[in-house]
Amino acid sequence: MVKHVQTGAAYVRVSTEDQLEYSPDSQIRKIREYADRHQIDLPDQYIYVDMGVSGKYARKRPDFMKMISDAKKKPRPFDVILVWKFSRFARSRQDSILYKSMLRKECGIDVVSITEQLSDDPTSILIEALLEAMDEYYSINLAQEVKRGMNEKFSRGGVVSVPPFGYRMGESHFEIDETRAPVVQKIFEQFVEGMSCSQIAKWLNAMEIRTIRGKRFEKRSVKYILMNPVYTGKLRRGTGGKVSCDRYYQKEQVRIVRGEHLPIISEELFGKAQRKMQDEK
After folding, report:
1. What are the residue ranges spanned by the domains of the chain?
2. Predicted TM-score (pTM) above 0.85
3. Is-contact 75 19, C-beta < 8 A?
4. Using one digit for the tens of pLDDT, what is the confidence trace for 241-267?
5. What b/e string do you get for 124-140 counting C-beta neighbours within 10 Å, with b at 16 or more?
6. What is the arithmetic mean of pLDDT over 29-51?
7. Four-residue CA torsion sign, 113, 118, 120, 125
8. Which of 262, 252, 193 is nearest to 226 (CA)?
């Protein structure tokens, strides 16, 4: 009797913290070897790859969501989804349970880890749950370690963010951008002398000066510059958790330390701008 050849799909994910052995090419190569040994046909159009993304939220992985959408088609395009490890499929137990259950019950599609083989024994349910819990623990613990490392670097005056308008990134700290730094100086001077944020934004746009993201200036982008102590040689970081709609760091707890970069404006000019900002409120 000829054994039925299944059609398979492969899901590959590589996040920024992964090591070389988890590169897309190595994952795909191992998955293809597994598919050949188990008589699973693996067409190229059913290989889904998400590069440089976390496994914490499925909705933020475009190829993952495309794979789920394809799996729901009738007739089903593939019989099994192969992954290097279950952690590639999801690092959130909620997502893992949700999508695996949906695939099995609604689509008749299993998710198979080629390195974490599970038997048909009922105890495999416990083993799979344990693997999911370990993956989620790793994700949470990694996030905490990264945050701890960033806080430690920040406390020493190290950079943990992208350079703001007026600076560029050096080897270890912000360096003054000779083209934009004079613009920052002028923004502060014009504001203290009586111009509003809206008027300054119009002046910048008339001069065809753009933000660090290449966009036109708005009132809020000028206000952000005026309220940022980075231009006096300092760094700031929220310590109470990110508060939504708090772009000016007014609602959350903020820690300010002396940075390693050179200031663009004086403490005196910055202080005048803050007092004027308060008076306008």
Report:
1. 6-140, 158-280
2. no
3. no
4. 554 444 555 555 777 878 888 999 899
5. eeeebeebbeebbeebe
6. 93
7. negative
8. 193
**Model confidence pLDDT, tens digit, residues 182-195:** 999 999 999 999 99
78 burial level (CB within 10 Å; 0-12, 13-18, 19+): buried
Average pLDDT of span 103-121: 80
**pLDDT at residue 71 greater than cutoff 80:** yes
Pick the closest to residue 12 from 114, 143, 146 (CA basis). Answer: 114
User: How many CB atoms are closer than 10 A to CB 5?
Assistant: 11
Residue 254 or 268, more confident: 268
Q: Name the class of domain 6-140.
A: alpha beta
Which fold does the domain 158-280 belong to in CATH? Hect, E3 ligase catalytic domain fold (3.90.1750)
Pairwise CA distance, residues 104 & 81, whole Å: 11
Q: Is 21's pLDDT higher than 60?
A: no
- Given a contact cutoff of 8 angstroms between Cβ atoms, the answer to whether 35 and 42 are in contact is yes
For residue 52, what are its two tokens?
């440089």
User: How many percent of the chain have pLDDT more than 90?
Assistant: 38
Q: How many residues does the chain have?
A: 281
Identify which of 197, 193, 203, 189 has the alpha carbon closest to the alpha carbon of residue 281.
Answer: 197
Query: What does the alpha-carbon distance between residue 94 and residue 132 come to, in Å, rounded to a whole number?
Result: 9
